[in-house]
Amino acid sequence: MYQKDIKFNEIPLQLKYIVKDIDKEKVKNFRWFQDKANNIFDILLHDYAVLYDDNAAIIIAAVIDFSIGIADSKERKLSRYFVPLIIRKDIEDKNYIGIIKGSGFTAYLYDAVDDIHYIRFVDSLLSSNKNIDFNNGGRLEAFKLIDYDIYKSERFSNKSTNSLTFLKKDEIIKTFRRMMPGINPDLEMTMMLKQNGFNSIEDIRGYFQYIDKEKNIYTIAMIFEYIENIIDMWQFTQEYLKGILEKFAYMGDIPLEYIKKSSEDYLAEIKKIAGIIADMHIILSKISTNSFLKKNPKESDVKELISGINNKYNQLLNYLKDGIFDKETKEMFEKIAHQKDVIEKASKYIVKLYPYFGQYIRCHGDLHLEQILKTEESYIIIDFEGEPTKPIQERNKKVSPLKDIAGILRSFDYAVYSAYFNYKDAYNSSESELKNIEEFLLLWEDIVEETFIYTYLKIVKLYAPDILPDEKRLDMIILLFKLDKALFEGIYEINNRPEWVKIPLKGIIKCLEGLGNNQIM
């Protein structure tokens, strides 16, 4: 709690002290906070602008640096976030993140991203293409692309590291909470794909940039067309697998052809999605703008990929060493820790394959089933910002389209093990029953993967064969990208959803076993 003999309208003058008293544990519980595995040691106000104030409420756009680190280490780093704040004299709910006691009043501090008054201000700012000067030399700029009105705001389910607010009539505002310098790839990729005839994406209505006093540009928010969708493909797959398990769980050994036959409806969906992703990669491979122009990979590109895998592997093991986990999770960690030699052997071999990787292009960068919306007519791909914890410069790099393919394949695996662990938690099954269920789900996953890859490759080979690797090395290179993705997922889950970490750990073990068993090695 911050306490000082000040008037309510003097609160902004004390903001740098007030933010220091923000409840750190409440911040760590926010879905958008990406540093959950670290301790917050200090909270520093970098810049701010008062957007609205009266006798009862003050709305502030704040740029806040969180000083974070591991408890036993002296190393600290600053992690910058955009945090819209609203300060009210009356408490409306328990979601406050700070308390201010002043002269004759008590006020409560909230995250304002879904507050209707904040949203209306954002609306008016965009409508007028107006700029807002910040207190420490920064500036917020608005860019309107399509006219619209906002009548009401509503928060989406809290599943994203960004904040998604539904703006009725028919818009969504996506606020990029973690601030990284550069034009966000979500903005650049969506606009470029739309301009080049790829329509399985959202329309952008407008966007906002924050420019600091050193002239660094940060994409703060984008306003999208709201897509009426039936379901995203992650939810669809989860519900589908739940239904399959209810039907087949107690049947014992099930023939492969029977599983394939019973999954024809799902496989039809996957074929359509594979076709859309193939079209996206083909279009991206034809764009001649310099930042999108395809390129031949160099040995250094593959070395960078290998180096990233090794760094993630070591980082994950460090997190695991310092964390508190159950017996099953610890056993997975130990299994991963004992396979370092597999990565070392694979690294030496794969570096030599750089001439066979196929040409590199700009890609989605973080493609998985939750990024694909199923509509009544077709499918929409969303969230082109890449892996949100990486610097924007790294996310903008060209890469093999197999990175996106590996993301989808890892997503199938996520869905399978999510269904497996949900079943395990819900039913008191014997070890042999659970083994049968896992084997059944893995057979199903193999069928889905095979269908997806076959459909995708068939189309791309016709229209952009130069972006595909040499066929003899295809499986090996896909495994490499899958391992890279699974390691990223493991680190992400420890920082954001520690209870989910078993799923990527299972995937890492599978990838390491696949690399170890590869005949080329």
From TrEMBL:
InterPro entries: Kinase-like_dom_sf
Name by which UniProt lists this protein: Trehalose synthase
Organism of this sequence: Aceticella autotrophica
